[in-house]
Predict the structure.
Amino acid sequence: MKRFIWLFAFITFYANAQDTVEVNLSSPHATIYTHLYFLQTDSYQPEKAAATILGLSEEKAIQKAIKIKQVLDGKGLNVDFNKIPINANYKDSIGFTTFHKYILFPQRMPKIYVEKVGNNWYYSAETVASIDQIYKDVFPWYVEKLQEVIPVSGHIKALGIELWQVLGIVLLLILVVIIFILAKKIAFFILRRIQHQVTHRTSNLELDKVLKKLAHPISLLISLAFIDKIFPSLQFSLEINTWVFLALNIAETIFWIYVLLKLVKVVMRIYEEFTERTESRLDDQLVPILNNFLKGLVLVFGLFKVLRLFGVDTTTLVAGATIGGLAFALASQDTVKNLIGTIMIFLDKPFHIDDWIETGEFAGTVEQVGFRSTIVRGADTSIYQIPNSKLSEIVINNKGLRLFRRYNTNLGVRYDTPPVLIEAFVKGVREIVIAHPETRSDSYNVEFTGFGDSALLIMVNVYFKSLAWGVEQSSKHRLHMAIVKLAKELGVEFAFPSTTVTIEQFPEKKSLDLRYNTDQEKIDATISKIVADFTAENPMENPN
């Protein structure tokens, strides 16, 4: 029996000890707990809560303390005492200040914080001075008027919600729909005006669709801002406000991510139209790279925002990511070097898309420039994937930057070709070059330049206008065919490596000389005919 009496006495003493809470201002945790505890319904002692306000009379301090709690409740800011420091000498680690202070909600309510004065912690002078204005912002002038006009029947509760609050939610939703429709039209109109000012061009259907998609989330953000402003006026409980404002903040973050992603799409579309008007095709390749980079940046910042809403310390996360990123960078130096190489390629622009480049190891047409490597397609259609770090360091012969494509070759004719025919052949080749639509008629050389081992050498040096490799090959084909036809009509034969044995005395020996027709009229007629036929087959597209 004595054991039960002692157990009952211990439980009674422990319960009384638990209910006995004294004013404690020794730390941020103690001060904030004292303030909120003595303003709860079951422990309401406002004069003790007012002890957290320094330098005011008890009556004014009570008013300030009550307003601070009402603001926190109205915005759904639920204080997590597990995160409030209990260190009496706590210093704010956010920012550059060295004062002893603690901000309860740095992002949503930065002006409400406690600071150390002497040996105790109180709500700061800035908080006390600004709380009246903050209260007016959270609870506008019409809130008190609204409470006065609500009849008794309006306070009937169902599931913990009063009837006037239900009607207020319905009215709020109607206003939100109206604001959303108006904001969407206004946002689209403003976006089109901005687009016209930036691009100096009328919108096309595709861009209008993107602008409409961008105006949609913008109008949603305006609607959410309206709800955020008006909802505290309905004076729901802290629990309801906490969940409502958490949902609003999550929705706002998602809509902001959507807006920024659409904005990236609009900017990239405008930049894409700009690059289409430039001669460089490397700018076109930059569009998808910038697009992916900006989208990734938006998603990363959005993720950090969502994590912060759920109470994750993003400062610690960023610090950890920075250290981890440094370690990762050291472990993957080649990737970092390739990224730097990519930046240098876009800054220096040593080549463009579709340029033919040559190095000591490969040659081909540039098809794509990526974050890590560049893809070059060789003449045999094989693919070279070259790391950008290497490509930015080696010597590149960019054939695509040539003004013209030079073609030089030697034509070898037989040693026994008469001088008259050599001169006629050279003249005919010159006229073919002039008549060719893809060669420069003001810069070429066709000359009898030397004596080879088994042929008389005629140099042909021309410049093709097109820089495309395929066009160059077809231009060579047409030039070669015209030269072969000219040689056949003139009776000029091309030489090839051979050995000629001459027997001075032989029965019925005849002359070894070929029968060449050196009639000048026939030669001129032949040249004119060949050139006329070539001109008819290949009309001049861009005559000089």
